[in-house]
Write a structure and sequence with these properties.
Helix content: 40-55%
GO molecular function, one term: metal ion binding
InterPro entries: CHP03086, DinB/YfiT-like, Maleyloyr_isom, MDMPI_metal-binding
Pfam family, one: MDMPI_N
CATH topology: Four Helix Bundle (Hemerythrin (Met), subunit A)
Protein name: TIGR03086 family protein
CATH architecture: Up-down Bundle
Strand content: under 5%
Order of helices and strands: HHHEEHHH
Shape: globular
CATH superfamily: dinb family like domain
Domain Mycothiol-dependent maleylpyruvate isomerase metal-binding: 17-131
CATH class: Mainly Alpha
Largest sheet: 2 strands, antiparallel
Number of domains: 1
Number of strands: 2
Length: 191
């Protein structure tokens, strides 16, 4: 399946969960140790804006990745940023264009389809973070879980831990559901 379609579905999943966020919940801690829910939602907007810029060849400055603003409506801010990144990913040549992602590695670029897989798996994981924080269901479809497992399995060990996108892999039983295995690969404790 086209990574752009998977990414669009991950953004839709995340957006459906964010629709349930109430203003009084923005101060809640999340499974991401350094972020309240407000901080996590702002991070999602920043990521969308940064990846959209990277898809258009303008992602090199860290400031591009830090300017997201939730305003007074986090869902509206997220939806606008999700639309922007979806449009950027859909542009001709975006799958093969080099993306500069200073939050991942400052000294290299990634082919568009690889960079998009990073974005996709990050949003599948953060959708769970938001859902867990506010107590709503997280229900990625089977294709998202399968693709997420493939991408998560490729995250290098030295790119895990404090200050990185994902924590260390969490040990879980071999017969755990696939969604729980995905979360464990992304450093989340789902049970």
């Amino acid at each position: 399946m086209d990574i752009r379609e998977l990414d669009r579905r991950a953004l839709a999943l995340t957006g459906e969960i964010i629709k349930h966020v109430r203003p009084d919940q923005l101060v809640l801690p999340t499974p991401c140790p350094d972020w309240t829910l407000h901080g996590l939602l702002r991070h999602l907007v920043c990521q969308n804006e940064g990846f959209a810029a990277a898809a258009r060849g303008a992602g090199g400055s860290l400031m591009t990745w830090r300017g997201g603003d939730l305003g007074d409506d986090p869902y509206r801010a997220f939806a606008a940023s999700a639309e922007a990144v979806t449009e950027a990913f859909a542009e001709d040549g975006a799958l093969d264009r080099p993306f500069t992602l200073p939050e991942v590695r400052e000294d290299m670029t990634f082919p568009g389809r690889v960079a998009m897989s990073f974005h996709f798996v990050d949003f599948v994981a953060h959708a769970w973070d938001v859902a867990t924080t506010i107590g709503v269901a997280w229900e990625p479809d089977d294709e998202m879980i399968s693709a997420g497992l493939r991408v998560a399995a490729k995250v290098p060990e030295d790119d895990r831990g404090p200050g990185t996108a994902f924590d260390q892999v969490v040990a879980i039983p071999d017969d755990a559901p696939r969604a729980h295995r995905l979360l464990a690969l992304l450093g989340r404790r789902s049970g």
